[in-house]
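Anyone? Bumping this.
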Amino acid sequence: MPIDFSKVTFVYNRRSPFQYEALHEVNLHLDEGKFIALVGRTGSGKSTLIQHLNALLSPTEGDVTIDEFVNSSDKHKRSKKLKDLRKKVGLVFQFPEYQLFEETVEKDVAFGPKNFGYTKDLSTQLAHESLTTVGLDASFYERSPFELSGGEKRKVAIAGILALDPDILVVDEPTAGLDPEAARETMELFEKIHQRGKTIILVTHDMNIVSQYAEEVVVMDNGKVAEVGTPEEIFSHPISQYSLEMPLLYETARQLNEKGYKLNEKKIKNIDDLASAIAEGRKER
Amino acid sequence: MSTFSMGRYVPYNSFVHRMDPRAKIFGLIALMVAIFMDFGYSWTLTFTMDGIAFVLILVLLWSTHTSFRQVLNSLKSLWFMAIFLLIIYILMPTGTSDWLAFKIGTYPIYWDSILNAAKILLRLILMIELTMVLTSSTKPLDLTYAFEWYLYPLKLIGFPSHEVAMTLSIALRFIPTILEDVERIMKAQSSRGVDFAHGKIGAKFRAVVSLIVPLFVSSFIRSEELANAMECRGYDPKAKRTRYRQLKFSWWDLLETVFVSAVLAVFIYVAVTKFDPFKVWWGLTLR
């Protein structure tokens, strides 16, 4: 399901003293099945943008087209059953652990499928599957979500969205506030889901994660899409004007090149690449 | 967010905004008392006086930059009560029974009942608009300071007026935060297929539970964090303290207070003496 934004403008608190334009004529095309990173400084419109993807917000002007669904400012153009879009586009908010409310983990994860009219048995089965995906075994099913650790809570919350089996998974800063180990596990989880052919849209401030996992990067600035490209393209030039930091890997390679090495920055994708490039450089000397 | 913005402080620079919050609270109470004065069954008098109050409040609304749309929005939640009140008051026989409006079957409806209903409705609307003038022109924090000032005499008999004011200001401070939480959680649950607007009673109940429980959890976490933060900074409710923001009562405030008092005095005078200029001077009555 490709995603198309055409001239999307969104204004908060329209016609009041608090009026604020969060998106300004955004045009964007996102392909199916890609791992996409959405980056940009706080207040650049990332969160507003992703809320258009499952019709939590409708554009003030312009259209968002996802598959046969149209989320438009024009009420006549807008699809009738826009809420079904939420089954196809799963949106995991920042700090999703604050949405848990049921008595048991199993019930909480099955809540989503039940809302979309699946039977109780099927919902429970979907819940079990998605809990397995996020790495929580059967011993968690009957526990209260409120007695879990922060990382486990977040896994339960993510499982709650995965249980809907969305084709597009949108995650807003999933690693915020997690310890490095839990953060790595979470990112590997999304990588695994991506391997199954799903589109992942990841909002993050961590460029190391972007360089490691993303296939495409969308840079937002001031309510507009500033740049779109592969991580190699984006990180091949300075990005500090967007308040973004170079990933460590690229920064290391760049500084080594400044000191006389001749590394091909475009070929370096992980630490192994960097190490072998340095080793090769040494042999050539 | 837009649905919650009614009555929210809007930063403009009108004379109402600049007024001392203590004077504003006094003015609000005085004008409310004035609005709810009883003028008996002299309808010309009642509606003249309410009309004066109406014009006064219109001026206040205009000077605080309140748009007509905002006024309508603030009355949106009132329509159910309005209809309820109208029905009750119109069906209730009040006043003199010889002034009949019409009959529903054999049940008589009197003009006095209809006018009474209109009066009550008008006064309710005036009260709401008056409160809106206060809350949209005064920072919540200034309101609590003024509130604390009014509670000050009670301190003499050991009433914890500072603590009450502090609790109040914290409660006010967290209203927008909790509304943000509500919005965030509603969006998160909507993403899980919850429909807050439509659905059967059972589904709606579950929708509300899915909102309330996380809201309670996050509120408890927040209050605990706030309590810890206050304690870390050595907050002692009993300590004597000075203020960063001082309330200043200017001559201008005094003038406004005197004006409002004068309005109240006129209303009380008219209500007590039932002085009806229409009747006394021109011999007019409404029937």
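Late reply, but here is one note on the structure posted above: The mean pLDDT of chain B is 85.
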